[in-house]
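In these records, each integer encodes one residue's backbone shape. Here is one protein:

___
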Amino acid sequence: MCDKSKEILDYTIEFLDKYVPEWFETGNKSPLFIFFSGPQGSGKSFTSIQIYDHLVEKYGDTKSVNFASIDDFYLTHEDQLKLNEQFKGNKLLQGRGLPGTHDMKLLQEVLNIIFNNDQHPDKKTVTLPKYDKSQYNGEGDRCPTGQKVKLPVDIFILEGWFLGFNPLLQGIDNNDLLTGDMVDVNAKLFMYSDLLWRNPEIKSLGIVFTTDDINNVYGWRLQQEHELLSKVGRGMSDEQVHAFVDRYMPSYKLYFNDFVHSEGLGSIATLTLGIDSDRKVYSTKTRCIE
């Protein structure tokens, strides 16, 4: 692990080692959610997996610790093709990635099982989906089998690049960027916010990676793709990476600054880490809400 990644991980562990024990001390039997949010390439996926390993080592003997990415809930390839046709005039919904390209029914079913496990004492496990981005020449598809995790769930880690983005109300939130293709994406985003970070039933800790320039995403994704090319010999060209990131930029421009400044991803507390283009931490802020 490089020094910069370790620095990010150390801040994150310090935050969780304070608030996770406090949660268990309350005696609350509801699952504790840990939301990770940050731009593509910022290191959130890497860090969230390291945090999963840390929490399993610390609590795994007595608690059920689980991890998923919002990407695991992408629509199947077949259903994505149907979405492509339904919104064929919207380039942002052509292919996976943005709000609207996930199986919200499946996500709702998984959450219902997690939260209502006491109503089904005979149910011992819940299956979390897994998604394979390499299928169909990179278009991706859901894996035929998922990951079974035991119930009840005590800690659930969920990471994703737009977790915490709050949709705008047309006619109330006046923003020139809420036009064209973003109107459909914004409408889809309500389902995610209501189900996850705005859901009053979910008690959560939030970990947010922000940056001094959102255009750093281009460099981070290029770096990731070059590493992939060196390892497996295939991947996107620089031009393809740039076009890939372009699809996400309208969402960053519309939601990202307000999301970061709200410091409200977690319903209990939120850690916000500012990282520069080299992923070096330049600021840390913790907001305790409860």
Remarks:
- The mean pLDDT is 91.
- The two ends are 34 Å apart (CA to CA).
